[in-house]
Amino acid sequence: MLDPFPVNSVGLVAPQSLVIDTEISLESGKKLQSYEIAYETYGQLNADKSNAILVCHALSGHQHAAGYHTREDKKAGWWETCIGPDKPIDTNHFFVVCPNNIGGCHGSSGPSSINPKNNRLYGPDFPVVTVKDWVKSQAQISDALGIDQWLAVVGGSLGGMQALQWAIDYPDRLKYSVALAAAPKLSAQNIAFNEVARQAIMSDPDFFDGHYAEHDKTPRQGLMLARMLGHITYLSDDMMRDKFGRELREGKLNFGFDVDFQVESYLRYQGRSFVDKFDANTYLLMTKALDYFDPAADYNDSLISTFQQARAKFFIASFSSDWRFPPERSREIANALLYAGKEVTYAEFEVAEGHDAFLLPIEKYINTFHAYMKRIASESELI
Amino acid sequence: MLDPFPVNSVGLVAPQSLVIDTEISLESGKKLQSYEIAYETYGQLNADKSNAILVCHALSGHQHAAGYHTREDKKAGWWETCIGPDKPIDTNHFFVVCPNNIGGCHGSSGPSSINPKNNRLYGPDFPVVTVKDWVKSQAQISDALGIDQWLAVVGGSLGGMQALQWAIDYPDRLKYSVALAAAPKLSAQNIAFNEVARQAIMSDPDFFDGHYAEHDKTPRQGLMLARMLGHITYLSDDMMRDKFGRELREGKLNFGFDVDFQVESYLRYQGRSFVDKFDANTYLLMTKALDYFDPAADYNDSLISTFQQARAKFFIASFSSDWRFPPERSREIANALLYAGKEVTYAEFEVAEGHDAFLLPIEKYINTFHAYMKRIASESELI
């Protein structure tokens, strides 16, 4: 007999999908006549639909945020730490929706799905999408699901950026915005790392200008390099030191170019296993969405003006060792919200885990996040 | 008529070379029966040979540290800022020698030179060399030049590591060791970045297991990616912000994968121009030399014991925004030297320029470095 799922897991979950037949105009000027969205839900929507939480995923995320697809699954969804009964996003109270963003590669319309116009793979012809576009499509998804107002929109990293954009673009359609390990826009260094990742993918001879699928190829090496590089930026220097130090894989130097150090072996493994589950064109799109995110650009570069019209309450959190989006970047957001007269709770956690911390079971972070979410439940009379 | 060289430049310099016919045993266990060294000298060796300074180059450096090879040269040597009359390494007093390290690609024996054993290119068969190996070969070079003792061995980054290794391995053959922007060993994160760079080169289909020259190819894309990535780690986040911010190259987003931001264009340019002047196999060797540097490994991992036998005086300097080898790493060196009872001067500069700062004309740094070098000249009765 298989082990039962952990008691605080949502357990078995079923993939769902819906088709949005309303045209969407994208920031690029391009349009999608219709698109498919793969999504999952956890918990129960209450009668007055006042307990719905939208979870937005980050760069390499998808709709499978919690639970298991089969009894045999070894790994739960990517945010199992935070979604489930008695967890911060408590499915005893909340109804959680997590869609795969358009441009993704896990079932929603994207480069690896079929373009209904010509019945061929989109490939590189799938339009560049932005955080604003995602939020717009999520508003259409909300309509389709009959949810007029989200109790909260929640996300970490690129997901946090969507939570902020929601509060700016649809002020009446959410009560709380929760942005963890985010930034108000990317720095030149952030963009530079993304650009190296993109060049790695696009210069792979198996990329074929993005038409690799038609050639029965995949730019494995390029995508592997992109992921290895990304991975370095998700971990902190301290954590890498604690985890690997200068430990040698075979106890001695090899005086060659095979793996000497554990950290090399770890990175190669991370790179290789990513290639089997992610699409290169989607990776390109996601990094561009990050680079382009800059909500203040529409408001004379004033983040304060940007947030002026927001009506949500905000929870902003950052992690001391996150050098991808360091605490300063979250403080920019929190300060702008304060100056804009919004209600904002800001938490900064002293942790070693780097950018990835928002995904990890770090007690002080989980407890604080949980407390905030309880406050949301209580203010909304769900508990 | 061409403009004259700047007055504080060493002006026209001639490439020199010598052949070392003494066998050298390398840390890997391999040997070179003989090897060629390309080098340059600036200033005049005095009668008692007491004013000789060895300058060691870093990852992508070479022997051309100062001056110009022709009247038409637009660019001077890589450390023109610091070497020349009235500069920190003042050629009015000092005789400066800068060799290209073995494994290099600027005239010294390395992957792109001919293996005398079989009259074919070394290519990937050139042995892995370490900082210790370089210092050993530099000791042989000293013998060949008739220099029993260097007044100082000086370098930045990987060059600084050589300056430290000299003090450990040949305590009687130098009076001062000057290590700028260095570290006592690489962190896991440092190694991780090097590994991504190596994977970029080695996975380029034009790499041919290092035998690219025999195929009339060069792994351009891989080497370009490696350099782009390296470049990000040489600059600080702040400096990138000041230099590029989120400035758009064409004043608007393109919603495609061509260059949007200035920083992307800059990095691509840096990558492309590097490929024309550097050899991929050498890049691999240099990154391994960095990864392997760990002098304390021979002394029970105690940096204090490592420095115990040193007899030199030390100048250690670091730069606040250097996130490749941050000030903490230089402080580890300075503290270990102090505990080992050595005379050490430590300077930390508050600058925005990142790791590359040691190459740049930053007044407070140049003045302090100059003052220390004057002290060396004065203590040695050269002035």
What does this protein look like?
The structure is a homodimer of 383-residue chains. With 383 residues, chain A is of the alpha/beta class. Chain A has two domains: 16-185 and 295-379, Alpha/Beta hydrolase fold, catalytic domain (Rossmann fold, 3-Layer(aba) Sandwich); 190-287, Rna Polymerase Sigma Factor, Chain: A. In chain A, 33% of the residues lie in helices and 16% in strands. Chain A contains ten helices and 14 strands. An eight-stranded mixed beta sheet of chain A has the order 1-4-8-5-11-12-13-14, with helices on both faces. Chain A is globular and about 65 Å long. The model of chain A has no long low-confidence stretch (mean pLDDT 96). At the A-B interface, helix 3, helix 4, helix 5, helix 6 and helix 7 of A face helix 3, helix 4, helix 5, helix 6 and helix 7 of B.
